[in-house]
Design a protein that fits this description.
- The structure is a single chain.
- A hairpin with a 2-residue loop joins β3 and β4.
- With 341 residues, the chain is α+β, with helices and mostly antiparallel strands.
- The strands form three sheets. Strands 7, 8, 9 and 10 form a four-stranded antiparallel beta sheet that branches.
- The protein is built from eight helices and ten strands.
- The termini are far apart.
- Among the domains are: 171 residues, Band 7 domain (Tetrahydropterin Synthase, Chain A); 37 residues, no CATH class.
Length: 341
Amino acid sequence: MATITRIPFIRHCSTGPTVYVQHRAKGAVRHAGPGQAFWFRAIDATISEVPLDDRDLPVLVTLRAADLQQLTAPATVTYRVADPELAARRIDFSIDLGKGLWLEQPLEAIAAMLHGATAAAVVALLAPEPLEQALRADPTGLGRRVTAALVADARIADLGLEIVGVRFGLLRPEPEVERAMQTPARERIQEDADKATFARRALAVEREAAIGENELANQIELARRQEELIARRGANARREAEEAAAAGAIAADADAAKVRTVAEARADADRALGEAKAAGERARLDAYRDVRPEVLTALALQQLAANLPSIERLTVTPDLLTDVLGGLLGGGAPAAVAAER
């Protein structure tokens, strides 16, 4: 938008670099070009302001396909004013000399013309096609073809406009038709989902079966190992019992041998002692063989006296003394001896 500065009897106009300004005074062009700044008199001046920047125009085209189904094609047309002088002659871009605003609506006029041209190009391209084929059209390719059609439109060129490009959004049919067309795809997706679910369940069942088989195999292996352990423990117990029995037998044999040895030694000792005693008795008897009887009697009495218990009192009668003396002297018979303890 141009900036107008008011001073008595004269005014000043300044614009930006993206705006083409044409100043006419008394029908003659005094200033023309982008980014102009100049003084003028409002009484005999007219100023046109043409934008030079790229502008986007949304267009919504509704058409019927070859199978009589309604189709909506949203598009965005990007354009610019390539020849501002020509555009200023064909469209009223004049501004208010006091406020700097357009007196008319030039951009709406351009939009109406571009909307009609774009709709005609889209209808010409999509109307001969069935709905399903039209919906499968490549938006990029469709945009290029519509752009070519608009560039070739002489009405657009006569206004000094240049079409930069056309971009299409999602082509959509009526809601009921769209839902009907989406049903097969949804069914296929649901079928694939069901297959995936069934496959996942089958895989889970297989895994559970495998886990069960593995657990059963582990239990069987554990039972087998327990059986081997029990058998090994029994064998070890038998071996320990056998070893203990063998050791006991060896110990018993050793004790028996020891007892036999001790017994034999004692028997040999007793035998030797008996033989010694017998030899001593024989020697003593041999020594007593030539001794007189009275001496033997005295020795016997001596031995008897040594082996008798102690005598507290002894009564000797004359008769006993006579007999003893007679026996010692060899002239009398043995006398009876009475002893009282």
